[in-house]
Design a protein that fits this description.
This protein is 11% helix and 51% strand. By secondary structure, the chain is mostly beta strands. The longest helix has 7 residues. Pfam families: Cu_amine_oxidN1.
Length: 111
């Protein structure tokens, strides 16, 4: 199982991808597993995520995202792979989630 969310192993989420020394995870799948809402505009390649107190927009190939109206720079640009947008897993740490990465296993939990 590559993901543990709030202490529970989660199945059905696309495997993380390692690239450029960064672990990328599928934005919508992980956001929804954490209790959030995800919407994606295929034309503009922009994802809108509502997760707890956070409302943010992420665009493929752009490392600058907008969280609650403020720009934040990610360590690497999000990208699309097989109809899923992948973001650096550290995005969720930026949002206040505790995170650990052990090989290809990722654990996320609310603080």
């Amino acid at each position: 199982m590559p993901y543990t969310i709030e202490g529970i192993s989660i199945e059905g989420i696309t495997e993380p991808i390692l690239g450029e020394g960064t672990t990328f995870v599928p934005l919508a799948n992980v956001s929804q597993a954490l209790g959030g809402y995800a919407d994606y505009d295929h034309e503009t390649k922009v994802a809108h995520i509502k997760l707890g107190d956070y409302d943010f927009h992420v665009q493929a190939d752009n490392p600058i995202i907008e969280i609650n109206g403020s720009p934040i720079e990610l360590q690497a640009a999000p990208f699309i792979d097989v109809d899923s947008m992948f973001v650096p897993v550290r995005l969720f740490e930026t949002l206040g989630f505790s995170m650990s990465v052990d090989g290809d296993h990722i654990s996320l939990a609310t603080p």
